[in-house]
Amino acid sequence: MRLIRNSNNYGYFFILPFFILFFVFSLYPIIYTFILSLNEYDGMADKVYVGFKNYKTLIGDHYFWMSIKSTWRIWLVNIIPQVGVALWLAAVFTFNRIKGQAFFRAFFYLPNLVTAASIALLFNVLLDWQNGVINQALYGLGLVTEKINWLRMPSASQNWVAFIQFWMWYGQTTILLLAGMSAIPTSYYEAAIADGANKTKIFFFITLPLLRPTMIYVIITSMIGGMQIFDIPMVLTDGRGAPEYSLNTMVIYLYNQAFTYNNMGFASAIAYGIFMLIAVFSFIVYFMIQRKEDN
Amino acid sequence: MKKLWALVVALLLVAVAVGCGKKQQSTKLSIWAFTDELKKVVDDFKAANEGIDVSFSIIPSEEFRTKIRPVLRSGSGAPDVFLGEVAWVRDIVSWGMWMDLTKNYPDMVKQYEDQAPPYVVDLGRDENGHVVAMSWQACPGGFFYKRSIAKNVFGTDDPKAVGELISTPEKFLDAARTLKSKNVKMLTGFSDYQWIPFYGRKAGWVDSNNNLYIDPVAMDFFELAKTLRKEGLTAKVDQWSPGWFGNMAKKEVFGYLLPTWGLHYVIKKNAGDTAGDWAVTRGPASYSWGGTWLGIYKNAEAEDLAVKFVNMLAVDADYQEAYTREVGDFMSNLNVDAKMAKEEGDPFLGGQNHYQFFMEEAKNITPGLETKYDQDINGMYIDAIRNYIEDKMTKEEAIADMKGKVKNAFPEINVD
Question: What is the ipTM of this complex?
Answer without folding.
Answer: 0.86
